[in-house]
Amino acid sequence: MSADAPTSTAGAARLAGKTAIVTGAARGIGRACATAFAAQGADLVLLDRAEDLPGVPYPLGTASQLAHTVTLCRDLGAAVLPVRADVRDLAALVAAVEQACERFGTVDVLVNNAGIAAPSGKTADEITEDEWSLMIDVDLSGAWRMTKAVGGVMTARRAGSIVNVASTAGLVGYRHFAGYVAAKHGIVGLTRATALDYAPMKVRVNALCPGSVRDDHAVEGRMLSEIARSLDVPVAEHEETFLQAQPMNALIEPEDVAAAAVWLASDESRQVTGSVLTVDGGFTTR
Ligand SMILES: NC(=O)c1ccc[n+]([C@@H]2O[C@H](COP(=O)([O-])OP(=O)(O)OC[C@H]3O[C@@H](n4cnc5c(N)ncnc54)[C@H](O)[C@@H]3O)[C@@H](O)[C@H]2O)c1
Fold first, then answer.
1. Which residues belong to the signal peptide in this entry (predicted)?
2. Ligand 1 atom 38: the closest Cα is on which residue?
3. Where does the pLDDT of residue 220 fall: very low under 50, low under 70, confident under 90, or very high at 90 and above?
4. Less Cβ crowding at N or C end of the chain, within 10 Å?
5. Which residues pair with 278 in a beta bridge?
6. Which residues in 16-26 are b (16+ Cβ under 10 Å) and which e?
7. Percentage of the chain surpassing pLDDT 90?
8. What's the CATH code of the domain at 42?
9. Does residue 12 sit within a domain?
10. How many domains does the chain have?
11. How far is the CA of 11 from the centre of ligand 1 (A)?
């Protein structure tokens, strides 16, 4: 075994000593990642817009939901810096990274998780230009902006891990979701290109593609029901459709995604970059 091989992690906090930025941390998968990271010893910058967004036809995370995630993480022993910022605002993201470096010394991990599922539910020709631009701006350009804000910090240190939360929609098409599908395919492309940019500097970039994630009350997730609403299908029927379509016959739990994010963030995955990891119960294997 080489001297710098990952040592056994049995019983050890797998992210001890690391600082991670998680975007979209107020609720849902972002909250699940934040608490999983805190449980593994990371300190956290929890970033969310925490306010509704004109053009998105459902409520986004709130300030009190963000505060609740912060409390959960602090209760797990993490030092936490909450930041209210929109991933469409590069200056605010650069300021957040500066604040993070002042508070924690550096940033080791970025989880690009913030995203919207709608405006959706239309054929490509029915989407307005404003709807298209909003989707791409948040779900694709937001991840690029955050990468731009933090990339220099990581490459200067020759260390870092970026986890881009894409979706099975980054690998296959879904009817009436052209904007979302295009943005998530874009995330996979961004991941591959950035992984090559940063490999010489030992900064890793990977994409995580969850299948349909259950709207768990504990993390106040609501994307599955919003997707069902966009498609004008009852939530129970939408869930049943995905249960049938996911070969393992189960919806994905937010903690399944968080567990994969912990691994990609940790040194256990030190030779993994440019990969596209599905957590989809086999959905895209068919
Ligand atoms: N839930 C699923 O079934 C599922 C499946 C695959 C991929 N994903 C992806 O996982 C990520 C998280 O989804 P979720 O289910 O937790 O959704 P969610 O709506 O519960 O949480 C998303 C969070 O992102 C924040 N956010 C949205 N736009 C923002 C912006 N412009 N700036 C800053 N914060 C913003 C929201 O306030 C919210 O707190 C998304 O990228 C989504 O596309 C979700």
1. none
2. 61
3. very high
4. N
5. 209
6. eebbbbbbbbb
7. 91
8. 3.40.50.720
9. no
10. 1
11. 31
